[in-house]
Design brief:
It contains six helices and no strands. Helix 2 runs antiparallel to helix 6 and helix 4 runs antiparallel to helix 5. It is elongated. The protein starts with a helix and ends with a helix.
Amino acid sequence: MCAVTRVLALLLWAPWQALLGAPLAELSGDQRFHIFLSNNLEFTRKIKRDVAALQHLVCDTFQLCKEEELLLLRQDLSIAQAPMERCHGRSFQAEACFSQIREGLRTYQSSLDAVLELLPGHAALVESLQLDAANLSSNIQHQMEDLGLATVMYPMEARGPLPAFSSHFHHQVGTFFILADFQRFLETAYRALRHLAHL
């Protein structure tokens, strides 16, 4: 059992070993870099809480709570998902991950317009979330420039106008998936930032 535990530990840790050779490794002792990570971790936690609050609203208001029950409907919706392959697993690249986080925040900031249309009574929360997403994206951009990190631009999938929902119900389901995708995006971003903070 001990040997099995060691093997599992190595398998779980291996994808992150790439970090040790990443360009950001040399900044692991830089106080500015750690302040940057700490601030962005806190900001990400705040955004995650606000997205969760909107998810609860959608669940309570429209009884749309379980993703597995809605997966078939998703095929009929054009919902953009921000790529995050550079932020986890063997493809992890720290600078590229920051760029994908920044670009993803811009995508979801725009997608939240659909949420705003569906929940006009909660405009203050949605608009606050959009502002936080924009500020975090801008903050990451400025911090990357200050630290002399390369800015990598990734084309966003299905970038363009918001999906035209064919019915009010599809709008509800689309909003559910926008928020679910955003929450997954934030979870990945948070794990990547937290790991870098512990290097």
